Each structure stands twice: as C-alpha cells, then as structure tokens.
Amino acid sequence: MIRPHDFQYAMENTRVVVAPSQAIETFGTTRFHFSLVSELLDEVDQVRVRSGTIEAERPRILSPAHFSKLLLDGFGDRARDFADWLEANPDSARILRYGFQFRKTDLSERVLHEPMEDALARLEEEIRTGDDPFATLIAGVDDVWEVCLLKFSMEMIQKSAGENVAEWKRRGLA
Q: Which domain holds residue 8?
C-alpha cells in the first residue's frame, strides 16, 4: 500500500519531459508508448528506465439517461429524483468517459549507469528524432512509478477532452 506522503511525493516529482504530439483519439483506441526514468534509491548515477504501453480506450459521451443509471447504484429515492431530473433535461450534463489499461505484459526495464539528466537528454533526443507521435518520456519516482504513469494519464485526459468534444460537435454527435 502506498503511504500518503509517498503518493504526494510522486505527484509533485513527476514531470513529462516529452509529451506525445497526439492527443487521445476521439474515435479509436490510442496506445501511448512511454519511457519512465527514475533514479535508483541509494545508488549514485544509476537510473531505471521502464518502457511499455498505456492503452486509452475510445472516449465515450455518457448521456444523462445512461449516467443516471450509473448514479443509482447504492442510492435511495432522492437519488432517483435527481436521475429523473437528469433524464428530463438532456442538455444538463454530458460526461466524458475515458478508459485506460496499463498492460504490464508490454513492460520492460533496464538499469543505466549514468546520471538522470544525461539519461533523460539521450532518451529525449531519441524520441524527438523518431516518428512516433504517441511516444512520451516521463521523469518519475522509482518505488511509486505507477503513480507517475497515472498522473501522466490524467494529464492526457485533460489535454484531450477539449479536442474530443470539439470533434464530436463537428460531426453533430454532442
């Protein structure tokens, strides 16, 4: 279990060095290819590079009727009143739903014997000269590295939401 201060430390010390040039696809599945670099604890000039894939499912708009059904699980009559209001006012709320899957089967890791900033600079150059619009480089914390990936995922949702809604509107779907 992650202790609250470890979680907070990871949130404060995660930075995206190279962001993907593409947002989450509006009408398809998106696969981000990440390299997460973290300093090894109690080791000088050694870093761990974890590489893998985070898959973002196609975002969906949840209509008020569908959203109201999700709201009612475990709630009473007053929640039903709110759900009825949502269904009667279809323009009152549209919720975007994003789904991410972190596939550890795609995960690889290696230890490099160099300072963190040198490793980041070299990997950044590799990504920038490559042609993968979904490649990302993240500097994170070794023992809670998965929190770093989740933070990246949330940032991608925030970055992509406006573009996804605009695309739906252009096609008359929102």
A: 4-58+100-170
